[in-house]
Amino acid sequence: MTTTRQATATATKRTAKKDVVTKNAKVKPVENLFLSRDESWLRFNQRVLEEAEDPTNPLLERVKFLAITASNLDEFVEIRVAGILQRIEEGYNQPQPLDEGGLTPQERLDRLSVLLASFVEAQYRCWNDLLLPAMEQEKIRVLQWRQLSDAARTHALQFYENEVDPLLTPVTIDPSHPFPRVLNKALCLALLLRHKRKMNGGSKQVTALGVVTVPRSLPRLIPLPGEDGYCDFILLHELIESRVEHMFRGYEVLSRAAFRVTRNSNLYMQEEESRSVLESVRAELHNRRKGDAVRLEIESSATEEIVERLRTNFELELWQVFRTDGPVNLSRLMNLYSEAKRPSLKYPPFSGKEFRLSAKSVDIFDEMRKRDVMLHHPFDSYKTVEGFIEAGSEDPNVISMKQTLYRTSKDSPIFRALIEAAQSKDVTVVVELMARFDEDSNIRWARELEDAGVGVFHGIFGLKTHCKLALLVRRDPDGMVRRYAHLGTGNYNPVTARFYTDISLMTSRPELTEAVQKVFDYLTAETEDDSYLPLKVAPLTLWDGLVELIERETQHAKSGRPAAIVAKMNGLLDRRIVEALYAASKAGVEVDLIVRGMCSLRPGVKGLSERIRVRSIVGRFLEHSRIFSFANGGNGEIYCGSADWMPRNLVERCEVLFPVTQPELKKRLRDEILAAYLADNTKARLLQPDGEYVRAPRIGTAFSAQEFLIRVAEGSSEKVPQRS
């Protein structure tokens, strides 16, 4: 059952898209206007892989980049590929919308299967041909059992006896022992077994399949005693493989191979079937672990008999089997990054700049009454945001606190502060239970908050609560009751705040804080206000508001006034916005887009997007901030927010876009932050009309935006170089 708002938003979306298609179909064949979403995502992961291949990056950082590509690919397979398979299974064979490529699900799958196989091959070439030899030179080795010295074997076997063996459950598949339910992405060993004695007096010895699940609670890389200055490891499954004869006594082990199954991890929610959203999510999480198999990864050394038995058991097609020339599950190489204590092979340590109160301010509230505070994380320390929430918890003059939580972390100071605050004041928290792959932890947070006396809400059913808002109400020393707000582009997660770039705005301006209050009213009571200005709120006003801002630039250009757009985001897929940007370009608007991930817009097409440039930056920090600058005829406006320009953000989530109005803050966003990203000629890739990306041309001195922003945080007075 959908809400009236959802139904209206969906209908509006369909109508708007139909109108746009009709209008532009007269100008240019629609098939040429959009790039494929899924293929664009794969190209993003390719850019991450390029960082793993790049010898100018520190070696262990390259290992980390490779692990990230594997983690990214896992999510793509269990969500996007699984969704396509689901549609095919349901008998859907109609072409997708043109901004999805105009292909049928089967055609999309056929194209993706080829690209996925090619990408996996590239991952393992990177591991085998580039990273392993480079690590060997630095005396870091991932050894196989046969390569271990006597001392290393003794150490490994002791670890096995004490830590591993008690956790293992070997299973032989036969009529009384069915194939175990292999959980999603659990690493396992498959063994082809033959009984050492003939069964039932027969002359034929029948082979059987054995399965051992590798314990998830243990690290995948086991450190070994250092010898001759080497930092050595053995993979956990290699250690277990060395002992399988002891687990399957009475059998001859003919062959063995590590494998992993990826399952459909989409959550299929039905409101009327559950007592509450929390219980519904919890039930679906249980199902996710056992969803339909989507992919089988298995070592390339596996015999055909093992592969076929597994493929048949999991009901997979041949293209869904990926043979790995190296460790199954490269994402676990992240352990190598953390376990190898070699600082010289990592990025130099960096801590964000600490915020300092003005000379005459007594606390953060006093400071916010005088001016807005803007922070650019991680270059500005996230402790300022934590301190704001902690101050609200500890200050007896703070009457109430409201906050959204999309993702957080274990032992978060913010989480602890909210629990403490509930002991003496009204605290309301909107927890998004369906933050992908954080559902388990968010359920725990919600229950702990409720137990502490916090009023916990889960937003509006069918809409993810993705906005980043905190609102404190305080009775100030002058007797006035004021609101203080934090608005951000990133999650309230102190861990990811150290390596995600995000913007925070802390303000007491009544026009902003009152609008934030209205958003909380919408989230807890679904009450819609006539206006949320100066905020733009999805799914109510944001989509139309963004298009209006772009169309305003178009009109400025047609009238000869200054017209330009610089927009930074994670993804650009919304068809209506892409069409508006095309129209702006044709009218003369200069458009620079900084899009980290997926982008369906084709830049640089004659007569369509000649004035649009798209760049992606992949570097040390994950680019996560959303910043949107509009020239507005010479009276520039800048907004930041939680939403990308994607349909899911504009229609299916509650998002907030907020203006930054103080001149010095606008100048910093425009002339320092955005200018740095546009000047980057080291980590930037430029999107071509055919969907491929090329490195930004190196003209003059090498310049990295992230490295520049680190230097600025450390006190450098360096300026952004002029764009050529």
From TrEMBL:
PTM text: An intermediate of this reaction is the autophosphorylated ppk in which a phosphate is covalently linked to a histidine residue through a N-P bond.
Cofactor(s) this protein requires: Mg(2+)
GO MF entry, a single one: metal ion binding
Keyword vocabulary terms for this entry: ATP-binding, Kinase, Magnesium, Metal-binding, Nucleotide-binding, Phosphoprotein, Transferase
Residue spans crossing the bilayer: none
Pfam families (alphabetical): PP_kinase, PP_kinase_C, PP_kinase_C_1, PP_kinase_N
Name of the coding gene: ppk
Swiss-Prot/TrEMBL catalytic activity: [phosphate](n) + ATP = [phosphate](n+1) + ADP
Protein name per the record: Polyphosphate kinase
